Amino acid sequence: MNMRTLKAAVAAFFISSGVAQAAEPAAPVNFNELAKQCASGVHYNTMQAVARTESGFNPYAIGVVGGAIKQPTTFSEAVEAARQLDKAGRNFSMGLSQINRYNLAKYGLDYESVFDPCLNLKVGAEILSECFGRASGNDQEALQKALSCYYSGNFRTGFTQDLAGQPSYVQRVIAAAGKNHDNQVIKQAEAKPAVEAKPVIPELDPNTPAPVQVKVTAKPNKPKPKKPAQVVVAAASETKEKAPWDAFGDW
User: pLDDT tens digits, residue range 159-205?
Assistant: First the structure.
């Protein structure tokens, strides 16, 4: 499977949330190719052995401490089961790498994103890498101790038998590594429903009335200043009335 095919298959797995539409059949995803892309810090064969032991390559697997449930086969079933277990106060782990509920917040996951195969493998690899970095011994000794730490949080419990006559966790992972092969695929009963992204800003409705009513107050008209009246002074010769005895207009 080339990288373009892989990315297309992974995109078919999980698309960011929105309005659900009809689900489409999921394309098979090669485990090693996905591990190379999403968990590059750990050798893909090591991650394959861990996933084989932890989940049997079921991305919706849920393991309950001190109990068991019917294993989900769809994304919606897995999310609902995880939420119900959370409400019941149970301790449980989820997904391909079986990420424990108490590690979700630390690694930025929730009860939906933990079932994303790529994110789940990424976090699983980060946890194993942290354990490996603290383990002593040569590479193989440190790796076995890291597997114990991955399983139990310490470097001892993973080497002990959970049940009499049963192999330890580390022994089970080592045995699982002997079954690794390049064509291993992730079990996938259905893809997460295809979705349509929700727009942040809605479509404008031209029929919606304005939510803010603005009152417009007309300004009073100011009276224009009147021009001063023009005073016309007539010439004295035109306005002065002659006396009857002033024959020559001298007075």
Answer: 999 888 899 999 999 999 999 999 999 987 555 554 455 556 665 66
Integer Cα distance of 51 and 49 in angstroms: 6
Record the tokens describing residue 27, joined without a space.
Answer: 């394309």
Radius of gyration of the CA atoms of the chain, in A: 43
pTM over 0.70: no
Which domains are assigned to the chain? 32-183 (1.10.530.10)
Q: Which of 24, 23, 122, 13 is nearest to 60 (CA)?
A: 13
What dihedral do alpha carbons 9, 15, 21, 23 form, nearest 10°?
30
Average pLDDT over residues 145-164: 95
Res 55: pLDDT: 97
> CA 117, CA 61: separation in Å to the nearest integer?
11
Q: How do 195-196 and 62-64 pair as beta strands?
A: unpaired
Question: 57: left (phi > 0), else alpha (psi -120 to 50), else beta?
Answer: left
Rounded to whole angstroms, how far apart are CA atoms 130 and 66? 26
Half-sphere exposure of 113 (CA within 13 A, CB side): 11
